[in-house]
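Appendix B. One record, verbatim.
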Amino acid sequence: MTNTAIILAGGQGKRMKTDKPKVLCSVLGEPMLEWVIKACESAELEKVCIIKGYNAPMIDEYLAGRASGADISTALQAEQLGTGHAVMQAEDFLKANAGGNTLILNGDAPFIDAETINGALKAHTDGGCSVTVVTANIPDPTGYGRVIRGENGFSAIVEHKDCTPEQLAVTEVNSGCYWFRTADLLEVLGELTNDNSQGEYYLTDCIELLIAKGRKAEAFTSHNPSVVLGANDRRALLALNDMARAEIIGRHLDNGVEFTCTDGVSVGTGVTIGKGTVIHAGVVLRGSTTIGENCEIGPNCIIENTTVGSGVTLNSVQAFDSTVDDGAKIGPFVQLRPNSHIKRGAKIGDFVEIKNSTIGEYTAVAHLTYVGDSDVGANVNFGCGVVTVNYNGDKKFRTEIGDNAFIGCNTNLVAPVKVGSGAYTAAGSTITKDVPDNALAIERGKTEIKENYGLRRLKHHKEKYEQAKLAEQEKNKK
């Protein structure tokens, strides 16, 4: 038996005021659609069909760029005529998997979880149901379809706009998530009509059609009331972000992570943080980032898809697709661009950029330095203002620096070039040739002195200064 999922992702979301499909609006840096897909993957659903509509090529582009996982296909809903109409577009997908069960999900309800999916599926199959509705009880049900129960249990779902005053008082609501026996869903899809206040084809009408045919319908109440939450505008999207952020931070607090302040802090769902680590204000941790134990992640760091060891100090660091080993100290105002590896005990100071380079153990790159496409050994010292000149306008080349080397202030290392172990470059040198081990390289232009040049060249500059001083003195006299 094949259990599959259909994700409804065709809406524009006009109130979002964006050119992209609503489901691509993000919660904690990931599109809402991605949250729903990952829930399906965590629940081990074998196949997923995404119903695209508004700006469908953007959905295709996103799916093409995501990591492999579930077997994902798409179907196009050229006109948005309701949830039932959206599912009709997946008829071929349903027929190809008619022997199992199909989960219907909304792509803009990101907090659906694998526990709810699998719990509802178990209730669905154990109860021999044609359809099982996932519900939740929430304090304010405004805008949600109400779950109506009678003497024999679940009986219907009524959309908010079609509710009577008595039905509006019900707090159990439809999450928009349903398990259908696939063959039964196919049987009633063609019987849907748009005889309602919106002139749309409601998927919920399939439930009434199945009940009328004597099929069994039940409701599964999720322990996670957030499964019903979606976003139709930017305010609601912000609320989802705030909820997700608080939930994730709470889990890390329970695991022994310290947050000195949560202002501006955002931790993604794929981030792991070791116990004893301190996170300060304004920190953003994204993607598959891993932070070790007993680190200090200072204010305004952005760390994405980066592995950070234990005992590391980061202060106002932006790091992307890189690795930082135990005991390193980096910042402030440092950028680690992709494929950078900072080894154990290294120190990277203020206003330094590292790109596609390895910085060896206990090496110090103090400040105002660019290291690109380089392999740097252990215990190397960089003076301020050093630049690896890695690009000639056509191709990029690598620089190699051996252990214990000393790179003097304002040295330009014009790649490809190698500085040997224990070698020394004099301040202000532009190194264009390899430097042997333990050698001193001095590559400077000859100093030429022209007497009294400054008197002529800087005369106007000096006069402006003197005039400003006189004007200030006159002002003070008054």
